Amino acid sequence: MKFNLFNPYLLAASAIISACFILPKPAQAASWLECNGDSGKKLRWSGNSTTARINTISFPPGSLLQSVERGINATNTNPSPFVINTTTETGGVGSGNGQNEIYASSISPPGVAQMRYHCYWLFGWHYGLDEVDIVLDSSGRSWTTSQNKSSNTVYTGSRLPIDAVINHEAGHYLGLMHVNWEYNVMGDSWRHHHTNGATARTYFGEDASHGSRVLYGSQNSTFNDVSASHWRRTGASGEYSSHGRVRIRNASNTATLSGITIAGEPGYRVNRGSTVRPEFTIENNGKQTHNNVSYGIYISTNDYISYGDTRIGGGSFGSIHPADVYTTTIPVTIPSNLNPGQNYWLGIIVDENNTISEVSGSNNRAYIPIRVD
Ligand SMILES: [Ca+2]
Ligand SMILES: [Ca+2]
Ligand SMILES: [Ca+2]
Ligand SMILES: [Ca+2]
Ligand SMILES: [Zn+2]
């Protein structure tokens, strides 16, 4: 989709948008800004890399700096050729100083990307991004530098992961805008993780990766990555997509099973020998369609899904396109020999037979807690 930015009276070199206050309209793909309503004039950087200066007064070397760098790395793990390089500085910060900076200050939202761009006609069109600053709120918000789900407020902790908000704001840095019609990091980035065992990793995801390709094209080198998540889109909240955990549906997919909290996370009660439909979000974060993608469904005695767990089903997804996030349910029969009253974790492994040469194979697994009755 597009936002028309042309102001015929604007001949100044630069204008600014605080990316948290743009109103979007529903459309098919990721979103970005367009100069004069022209799809040939997308607002992006003129080259395929820029440098962001991480302020080490805000984020000192150690876990704070690492969490910011991890968020940028998550954004950089996309199939476009564009790369955000990082360096550090201790100098002054501000919008309009010609430097792309990442720093902390007292602001109202948790994070904001201040995007400076130009879009004007002067004997020809001139347009593009000029400077983007990423600012995180410093006014006593409970941040964490950890990827442990025991720290994360959307799991069993109480804190907001720095890397997740950096990942979202770095999407603005590329030129992407908010999306509320698909599960994506430019919506609710707090609930947009690859989680297996104790670790919940923020990631850029299919829709933003698609957006990065719309803006910058596809990189020449091979970039394959399918993944599985236990988050899904549940609706829209203003310009952001709302996300919640995936569910377990009944065999006919007409109702959701009864819920139960297991180890602090949302789980479901299942009967031994019954057929149920666990739900998972499957993404293709790469640049090409993958056909006949294998998957297996597993029963685990813990929240870490591995090939060592008990395989109870599987098959293949016919075609996984790199532009439409695929949240689906998969019928599977709960084994009769499980222990009643015990907690298990129902998991998926995609590209189970490892035929796709991937950027990351560690994001191919996701789980749903279950209590067996
Ligand atoms: Ca500076
Ligand atoms: Ca700046
Ligand atoms: Ca296991
Ligand atoms: Ca993968
Ligand atoms: Zn935003």
Describe what this molecule looks like in 3D:
- The protein has 373 residues and is mainly beta.
- The chain folds into 2 domains: 15-221, Collagenase (Catalytic Domain), CATH 3.40.390.10; 244-372, Immunoglobulins (Immunoglobulin-like, Sandwich), CATH 2.60.40.10.
- It is 10% helix and 39% strand.
- The protein has 3 helices and 25 strands.
- The strands form 7 sheets. It has a 6-stranded mixed β-sheet, covered by helices on one side.
- α1 crosses α2 (162-174).
- The longest helix has 14 residues, at 63-76.
- The structure holds calcium ion (CA) (4 copies) and zinc ion.
- One calcium ion binds next to β13.
Task: Summarize the SSE layout with pairings.
Elements: E1 15-18, E2 31-32, E3 49-55, H1 63-76, E4 83-89, E5 101-105, E6 111-121, E7 125-137, E8 143-144, E9 160-161, H2 162-174, E10 176-177, E11 193-196, E12 199-202, H3 205-216, E13 226-229, E14 231-237, E15 240-245, E16 248-250, E17 259-262, E18 265-270, E19 275-284, E20 290-300, E21 310-320, E22 326-329, E23 332-333, E24 343-350, E25 365-372
Parallel strand pairs: 3-4, 3-5, 5-7, 8-9, 18-25
Antiparallel strand pairs: 1-6, 2-10, 6-7, 11-12, 13-19, 14-15, 16-19, 17-18, 19-22, 19-23, 20-21, 20-24, 24-25
Helix pairs in contact: 1-2
The chain binds calcium ion (CA) (4 copies) and zinc ion (ZN).
